[in-house]
Amino acid sequence: MSIDTATVPARPLTLTAADGYPLSATLYSAKAPVGQVLIGSATGVPQGFYRRFAEYAASRGYSTLTLDYRGIGGSAPASLQGFEMDYLDWAEQDLAAAVEHLKTSTLPIYMVGHSFGGHAFGLMPNHTAISGLYTFGTGAGWHGWMPRSEQLRVLLMWRVIGPLIVRAKGYLAWRKLGMGEDLPKGVYQKWKHWCRFPRYFFEDPHMPGLEARFAEITTPITAVSATDDLWASPASRDAFMSAYRNADYRAITIDPQTQNLRPLGHMGYFRPHAEPLWQDALDWFDQLNLAAKAA
User: Is beta strand 22-28 parallel, antiparallel or unpaired with respect to 10-16?
Assistant: First the structure.
């Protein structure tokens, strides 16, 4: 069931994180809103990539907020050379600022994550304001969860190409490789480090107590992975999402070949041909809305 998104208004915003950093954001407004959606982007993916999903959600009654994390897209400085930040800032500062903005409304807030967005939920200091998380392509990042050919490609990036580029440029110039937005050095360093571990940052000895924090979360969560997602296979998803062990959790595995879908990979969840997946996400938010009103 396609929905007309042509009349969805999009309003550019500037959010201010708790540490004062300005963030480029866009609000897609529903005509008669029943809820709000925050989109937690994947690493190195600018907010414009999620425009069609945001328009769809707004057409379904969910005003939707997208944003560029610091160092990405409209939230990037003129040059990433010498730009200092921590990968965790995207969750603890940037997404947290987006939640604070949405909290000014009395409507319930839901979150749609993509890859890092599912990681970020448990790191956000105000995640309890969110009534449900629906995340696509969230996995543990370890190369061992990937097919052999992808393992070799990823290890080449982490061990050879990435270090050479960062040493020369001062940041990961990913755009020239067709991999997404350029990444600040702080993001590259943490991401590379966490991808050494089968369970990602939960095995980082410099982040004690993290799994206990995730275990405190009881928010309803749905995590979707596609069998052709080389970076976040169902096994990789399960390795990471097991940390949300006390959440009202369900996992959905999609096989595009048997479910009459075009290939999804790691990025296809938000491309127009994946609209049936968007319907499922918004239907689930509708169910949560109804349950909350009946309680």
Answer: antiparallel
| pTM (global) more than 0.85 | yes
Residue 72 DSSP class = S
Task: Give pLDDT, residue 3.
Answer: 60
Judge whether 200 and 142 are in contact, CB under 8 Å. yes
Structural tokens at position 137: 């392509």
Number of domains in the chain: 1
Q: What angle do CA 213, 214, 215 make, to 5 degrees?
A: 90
What is the C-alpha separation between 194 and 18, in angstroms, rounded?
25
Is residue 5 included in any domain, yes or no? no
pLDDT tens track for 140-170: 999 999 999 999 999 999 999 999 999 999 9
Report if residue 221 sits inside a domain.
Answer: yes
Q: What is the CATH number of the domain that holds 245?
A: 3.40.50.1820
Report the percent of the chain where pLDDT is more than 90: 94
Distance of CA 176 to the CA centre of its chain: 23
What is the model's pLDDT at position 1? 47
- What are φ and ψ of residue 287, in 5° steps? -65, -45
Domain range spanning residue 28?
Answer: 10-294
What values do phi and psi take at 77, rounded to 5?
Answer: -70, 175
204 falls within a domain: yes
3-state secondary structure of 198: coil
How high does pLDDT run on average in the chain?
A: 95
Instruction: Please name which of 221, 199, 154, 181 lies closest in space to residue 74, comparing C-alpha atoms.
Output: 181
Give the integer Cα–Cα distance in Å for 295 and 291. Answer: 6
164-204, pLDDT tens digit by residue?
Answer: 999 999 999 988 777 779 999 999 999 999 999 999 999 99
| Cβ atoms 5, 56 nearer than 8 A | yes
Q: Which residues pair with 129 in a beta bridge?
A: none
98 is a domain residue: yes
